[in-house]
Each structure stands twice: as C-alpha cells, then as structure tokens.
Amino acid sequence: MNRRLLLLATMLMLTVSPAFAQKMIGNETDAEKQKRMEWWSDARFGMFIHWGLYSLAARHEWVKHNEHLTNEEYQKYFQQFDPDHFDPHKWARAAKAAGMKYAVLTTKHHEGFCLFDSKYTDYKATNTKANRDLVKEYVQAFREEGLKVGFYYSLLDWHHPDYTMDDVHPLVQVDTSEANYRRLNKGRDMAKYRQYLRNQVTELLTNYGKIDVLWLDWSWDKGAKRGKGEDDWGSVELLKLVRKLQPGIIVNNRLGLDEYKDGGDFQTPEQVSSAELAKYRGKTFETCQTFSGSWGYYRDENTWKTHRQLLDLLITSVSNGGNLILNVGPTARGEFDYRATNALDSLSYWMHANSKAIYDCTYAPSNFQVPEGSKLTYNPTTRRLYIHLYDYPKGKLILRGYGGKVKYAQFVNDSSELLFKPSDANTGDLLLTLPEKKPPYEIPVVELTLD
Ligand code: GLC
User: Fold this and answer.
1) Do residues 418 and 432 make contact, with C-beta atoms less than 8 angstroms apart?
2) pLDDT at site 16
3) Candidate CATH numbers 2.60.40.1180, 3.30.420.40, 3.90.1580.10, 1.25.40.880; the one for domain 374-450
4) Residues with CB under 6 A from ligand 1
5) Which single residue of 70, 107, 370, 386 could bond 357 by disulfide (Cβ 3.0 to 4.6 Å)?
6) Which residues contact 367 (CB under 8 A, 6 or more apart)?
7) Going edge to edge, which strands form the sheet with 396-399?
8) How far is the CA of 348 from the centre of ligand 1 (A)?
9) 297: nearest Cα among 327, 326, 331
C-alpha cells in the first residue's frame, strides 16, 4: 500500500472504528476514572435498600403499576406511613457486619414518593407521620458506621402531574388506546418534569455532604414504542450537572447514554444468574440482586435465595472482576424482616472468616486453571490466589499446572497451613492435602501465596 493510501485508510479507521469514534461527554482519562473508582472496585460488596410507600402494600414496589392504581387510590399508603422502628444505625451495622462496604438507598422510587425533604414537592416523608427527612438520617448513620453512601433516584415518576404517559405508567395499563394516551397526557409537560428532576438531583447532591454513588433508574427508549430515555430525562445535561456538583461521584449506566464512553461508570446486570456473569468479565460492573423476587418488601414472596446461592453470586461477581449489590426491602415499620436478617447473619459469618478472598480481588490470571468444583479470585497486590471450594474434595486437591508457582498454602478462615507437593515427576501439577473434615463454612477458601 502506498503512503497516501495508508493515510486514507487510517483516517477512515479513526472515523468508523467504535474504539476511536466513541463520543465523550467529559474529558476524563481512563487512568483518572480508575483512580476515582478505586474504593468501589476494592469494596466489591454493597447493600441496596428499597424502601418507600410500597413497603406498606408489601406486595412489590411496582404495586401501583401492577394494580393500575391512581394517585387517589395510592394515597392511603401516604396517610398510613409511620416507620416507628426506623433506625438507620441498625441497618448500617447489619450491612457492615455482612461485609458490605457501601449502601444505596431509594430516595425516590417509581411511585414518586420522596424519603427526603424536597422543596419541590409535598409528596415526601416530612409530610407523613414520620415527619422528618429520612434520607438525612440514613446518610448520617451510614457515614458514622464507616460505609460509603449512595442514592438511588428513579427517573420515572408515577405521581408527578407533568410526567407523561408511557407503556409502564399505571394509568395506561388497562386502556392502551391512542385516545386514552392523548386524554391522560393533556396538560402534562415533560419539560417541566425534567426541571423537577434536575432540581431534586441538585438537592440530593448539595444538601447531604459528599455522596459516593448515584444510581439513576432507568431508560427503555430503544426498541420500545412508548419508552423513555435520554431525550426525556435530558440525560447529557443531567449527568454534567451531577459531575459538577459531586466530581468524585460514581454513577450507574441507566441514563440511556450508551453511545457515550463516559455515559455511566458501571454496567448494572440485574438479577442475572451467576453463569451469565462470565459475559461481563473485563468490564466494570455491579450486579444487583434481591434476596427474593422483589426489591420492595414483599410479605408473601417465598422464593428466597439460599445462603449458598448468595455466596455464589458474591464469589462469581468477584471472580469476574465485578461487584455485587444485594438488596434489602425493609418493612413499613422500618426494619429488616427476619428472613433478611437471617440471610445477612449467614453472610456475616462467612465474610468474617473469608473476606480476604473478596476485597481488593478480581479474576485470576489466565495461566491458572480453575480446579474442578471450585471458583478462583485473585488479589493482584498481594499476589494471592483464592480457591473457593464449592465441592469440598476430601483429602486431596489436584492443582493442574500450578507446579513451581506456589510458595505457601493455607485456609483463609483460620490461617492453618495446607501441605502440598508436586504430584509426580513431570506433570507440573501440585497435590494439596486437605483435611477430611470440611471447615464449617458453606464454601471454604484456600489461599495460595504465589511465587
Ligand atoms: C428495575 C425496577 C426497579 C428496581 C431496579 C433495581 O429497574 O424497575 O423496581 O428498583 O430495577 O435494579
């Protein structure tokens, strides 16, 4: 190829190749982003908290949509709301004990009710029997317990008079005709709602000190006939505002800005199976998961994940280089119910003993084979490899190809030495000796110090 042709080809590549052409809203470098997100990547484990008026209905946070309720019909929950057991210090202590390093609370969910004292609405906790700013107390308590603090804020709003109809709005679930949309949209003005959004986000990011995470939810304009996204929320401007108000903040990816490289800091695979998490390896992600099927408190929902399933989600997230944010839906009285408490207690027990294999960890270098019945995590700073023993191999574990790579081996839970030796002459395998009796953890962890 002559030089002119080469130049032309390069210019063409620069314009077409997505790696080069991806648009930017700001001008942060990859290294700067990595630095900004360091605490979050090291933390690996957070607590999501979905709490609002739907906690009273106790049958899913989408109850207003599911049952096509009007504002008037939903008003009984506002009048009834009286969280007499609300003690965010208890929440924070439970999160901390379970090994969670940050939390994200729904300051407003799709129902539109605000747990914070907003100047721009009367539909807020201060006007209920709670009679105070609950977000303020949450922020204070979690900070005092040493956790990072995050806000979830719903872009959708099923209460606001200017918020237009779309295919998930409670009021158009029965009659989906054009005529009904037109009738209900009369007098509604999304431009005014967009301003409301900006005003409230400004309040949240100025009145509560440093906020570590902002979780904006969600956009579904692509492919849906009546979805909402970037243009409806004014996403680019909103994100610029967020970054201006809180330069260090970490923002999720649900503003509908996928065409921008910096349109969100992390991906948010929701309720995916642990097998699916492999797809996200190498990306910055946080999988959000419930204990049962619902985010808001759901009294009669009984498909709660087992301790093993929860551990699997945590370990698998880290073994693919991502975070897990696990949701609790407190009751309308403001407490975690016994099922959530039991689940958190079991996690506390495991994390107390094994958290070294979670914090600061990521996926293992590719030259380490995953031993049968296990998953690997790896701390690149200390160069320790963690083998999570899903199927406890009584007596022996063969580590294929590990020969010459390992200096020391022990259980993480009690730092008790595990002896190992080359398996035989030239295979390059190691034979690790394990006790017959499985240590008292659902998934015990072996730590290898690498050479
Ligand atoms: C979804 C749901 C919502 C939940 C969220 C958490 O977008 O609409 O109820 O809060 O996911 O990821």
Assistant:
1) yes
2) 47
3) 2.60.40.1180
4) 50, 61-62, 217-218, 270, 288, 295
5) 386
6) 401
7) 396-399, 430-433, 420-422
8) 26
9) 331
How do residues 162-211 score in pLDDT, each as one tens digit? 999 999 999 999 999 999 999 999 999 999 999 999 999 999 999 999 99
User: CB–CB of 198/162 below 8 Å?
Assistant: no
Atom of ligand 1 at shortest distance to CA of 154? 10
Tell me the pLDDT tens digit for each residue of 314-341.
Answer: 999 999 999 999 999 999 999 999 999 9
Q: How many CB atoms lie within 10 A of CB 16?
A: 9
Decide if 318 contacts 351 (C-beta within 8 A).
no
Q: Which of the residues in the chain have pLDDT under 50? A: 1, 6, 10, 12-18
> Is the overall model pTM greater than 0.90, yes or no?
yes
Topology of the domain covering 22-357:
TIM Barrel (3.20.20)
Q: Calculate how far, in angstroms, residue 207's C-alpha sits from the geometric centre of ligand 1.
A: 25
Task: Count the neighbouring beta carbons within 10 Å of the beta carbon of residue 296.
Answer: 27
Location of structure tokens 């004292």: 117
CA of 111 to the centre of ligand 1 (A): 12
Going across the sheet that includes 213-217, the strands are: 250-251, 213-217, 148-154, 102-108, 45-49, 323-328, 286-290
